Amino acid sequence: MCHAPTPIGPQGTHYARCFPCNSGRYSTALRGFVPICYSVHEGLEGALWRVKNEDASSWLQLPLASLLWTFLNSHLKCIEGAYGGAFDLGVTVPSSKQRNGVNHLDALLSCIQTWPVPWKRGLLTKMRSEPAAERRQQIVSDLFSADPSVNGRRILLLDDTFTSGGTMASAAHALRDAGASCVVGISFGRQLNVNREEARDLISELPQRPLDLETCRVHGMSEVDLFFMG
């Protein structure tokens, strides 16, 4: 469900789901997750890191915002159809690193005036600042705090990348704890780890694969997947 490559099992075929997805670890908070594309070190991941950490790379906000705008205009209806209806609000996952008091994703969204989702700033606050590596594949209940105005709302939750999923799931947990009726995650990239054997073939193929914005990940999900997540 997180769209990561899975290991090969004893039958010689890939498992249908990775362990965190199969165990339902995140499903109590996050109803679904849709990445725009895969990301790798020094590829899309590098661009996202620079726009967050380097003032000189702020120009990258506009092409990244354009990528997100194009994807949502083409596929928001697909995502809403798969996960139960239209979203009331779009919310960004806040980073502990901010420039001039502005979350880098909020700054990116401000590059474009009209979005198909009504983004709302300040509905999530990050309460702790330890490195993400210390909380991989975990929902940390007090990592974020959500504004009570999310109560009863359907939320589209944006983060830059999805690696182990812990940060996004923790943000979704805070939103659900504040009363959000549904949280679906979206990210620019689904990060691939070159150190994982099951990801190496896919990583080697990516330089030859053009970015396809005509088809979203919801198009590739089976009816069984949609049943479990819907």
Notes on the structure:
The protein is of the alpha/beta class. It has a single domain (25-217), classed as Rossmann fold, CATH 3.40.50. Helix content is 31%, strand content 18%. The protein contains seven helices and eight strands; from the N terminus they run H-E-H-H-E-E-E-H-E-E-E-H-E-H-H. A four-stranded parallel β-sheet has the order 1-8-7-2, sandwiched between helices. A hairpin with a 2-residue loop joins strand 3 (98-99) and strand 4 (102-103). It is globular and about 50 Å long. The termini are close together. Mean pLDDT is 87; it is low at 226-230.
Q: End-to-end span in angstroms? A: 12 Å
How much of the sequence is in beta strands?
15-25%
Number of strands: 8
The coarse silhouette is globular
Radius of gyration equals: 17 Å
> Could you say what the CATH architecture is?
3-Layer(aba) Sandwich
Secondary structure category: alpha/beta
* Uncertain segments: 226-230
Enumerate how many helices there are, as a single number.
Answer: 7
Binned, the helix content reads: 25-40%
Count of the separate structural domains: 1
Named CATH topology: Rossmann fold
Assigned CATH class: Alpha Beta
The spatial strand order of the largest sheet comes to 1-8-7-2
Write the H/E string, N to C: HEHHEEEHEEEHEHH
Average pLDDT for all residues: 87
Major sheet summary line = 4 strands, parallel
